[in-house]
Design goal:
442 residues; mainly beta; single chain; 3 domains; Immunoglobulin-like; 2% helix; 7-stranded mixed β-sheet; binds heme C
């Protein structure tokens, strides 16, 4: 009996009939598995002759899969849409984008999903999973074809990605919207593919001294001042804020999905890169030990310790980390002529130059939280500034741009020619002197 009954089924029944074999391996339309005609449409057709060209019957197949976290299992959705469908089937394969003959991850077999192993040429004789590194084909089980179920046809496939980041992964899928005739006629075949990549990894703030003053790169930071954060995977792109990042005159709290929290308040992000972020610390009345975290596309770094002080005055320096960023009244740079040849000149005794820094504290009127600065806001108390050993007269000190303090000082008449350290005292805190020089020449 068994032998007799098996004869007709073995010759016709392949996909879902009583033999329950399911579709042969290698029918997803993956280009490396065979010719373009080698889909379910090699056997299934609507009315036209075989092979049926996929995607010609007005429906579609779609795969919903998210970027993978290496080794972390996810459930992939396969959806076949076709208003004529009354019974459904599919086949899905996952390959490395760098070599599409190679498997990417493993599918889990269960009551609804069967998993066959490649190579694709094995067709009906392909073994069942585990596939031990061979390519895999996930398909519907007989029960999962759900005879009589109208549009759409839905399947869930559990997939475990490779344990390491293997770059892009491409999925090929074929879907069959059938008429539930239990034959290979009156059916509609659809194919598509989708590429994913490894999900961004969690940002990591460097383990020590990683959150620093944006001008001095020393430990103390302060509200409404520039900070620099160093680490890895901090961002996926490299850029500074641009006009499109502002809403009105509000500074951006994120750039490309990257944000910074200082003592649990959102900072304003100026520059992002994988290894460094420059941001404007938000206003805050707290001081002392606080924590800073970076959030990248919803992935949160571990908090990093930082010290928040009311003030942490520091001068910005030019590119070589030696000379104070300073300008003459006409806007040209102050520095030795060798610093920016043709663009920088020393300051003269008696001349008023502008120095630029951060961390000088609260202005009056107060600093506008998170807004661009349109008119200069003066500090109620001017810092004391020394150039070399001489006290310089401070003619203006205030905020002229977001987080940027401008200090106009007169070079003392007795200042000798040469390079002199410039320091500021603000509220009892002295700016770091190392590597902040002003060049004076008569
Ligand atoms: C080698 C030929 C062949 C290939 C390739 C093939 N099938 Fe089939 N399929 C059949 C035959 C024959 C039947 C008729 C029922 C049976 O014998 O199981 C069938 C039946 C089905 C049915 C039930 C049809 C209905 O109207 O009730 C589904 C669903 C199905 N196949 C899905 C697929 C999918 C999905 C693929 C591609 C991944 C595929 N098949 C590839 C031969 C094939």
């Amino acid at each position: 009996m068994i032998l007799l009954a098996s004869i007709p089924f073995a010759s016709f029944g392949r996909s879902n009939g009583p033999t329950g074999l399911g579709p042969p391996a290698g029918r997803t339309g993956a280009p490396t598995d065979g010719p373009a005609t080698q889909t379910c449409g090699a056997c299934h057709r609507n009315a036209a002759a075989l092979p049926q060209v996929p995607n010609t019957e007005g429906g579609s197949v779609a795969v919903s899969v998210v970027n993978y976290i290496p080794g972390q299992k996810q459930t992939i959705g396969v959806r076949i849409t076709d208003t004529a469908g009354l019974r459904w089937g599919f086949q899905l394969t996952a390959r490395l984008k760098t070599d599409e003959t190679k498997v990417a991850g493993t599918f889990t077999a269960n009551d609804d999903i069967r998993v066959r192993c490649g190579p694709a040429a094995l067709g009906d004789t392909s073994p069942a999973a585990p596939c031990n590194g061979e390519v895999e084909f996930a398909s519907h089980s007989l029960a999962a074809t759900k005879p009589g179920t109208p549009n759409p046809g839905l399947f869930s496939v559990e997939w475990t990605p490779p344990a390491a980041n293997v770059g892009e992964i491409i999925f090929y899928v074929a879907g069959n919207a059938t008429n539930n005739s239990n034959t290979n006629v009156g059916d509609h075949i659809y194919t598509t593919n989708v590429t994913i990549q490894a999900a961004a990894s969690k940002p990591l703030i460097a383990p020590s001294a990683a959150v620093v003053n944006g001008a001095s790169f020393q430990a103390a930071i302060s509200p409404n001042s520039w900070i620099t954060i160093r680490g890895t995977d901090l961002a996926g792109s490299i850029r500074t804020w641009g006009p499109a990042d502002f809403s009105g005159n509000s500074l951006p709290k994120t750039l490309d999905g990257v944000g910074v929290n200082v003592n649990n308040r959102a900072a304003y992000v100026y520059y992002i890169s994988p290894t460094q972020i420059n941001a404007l610390a938000p206003g805050d009345t707290a001081s002392g030990n606080i924590s800073v975290e970076v959030v990248r596309s919803g992935l949160r770094s571990d908090p990093a310790p930082a010290v928040l002080n009311r003030v942490s005055p520091a001068f910005f320096v030019f590119k070589n980390d030696k000379y104070a960023a300073a300008t003459h009244a006409d806007g040209k740079f102050v520095g030795p002529t060798s610093l920016y040849p043709g663009a920088s000149t020393p300051a003269k005794p008696g001349e008023v130059i502008a120095l630029y820094g951060t961390g000088f504290g609260v202005t009056n009127p107060a600093i506008p939280e998170g807004l661009t600065v349109s008119t200069a806001l003066e500090l109620p108390t001017r810092p004391g500034v020394r150039i070399g050993s001489l006290t310089a007269e401070v003619q203006f000190a205030g905020l002229t741009a977001a987080g940027l303090y401008q200090i106009n000082v007169k070079i003392p008449d007795q200042t000798p020619d040469g390079d002199h350290a410039v320091v500021a005292d603000m509220g009892g805190v002295t700016s770091p002197a190392a590597g902040v020089l002003v060049t004076v020449a008569r």
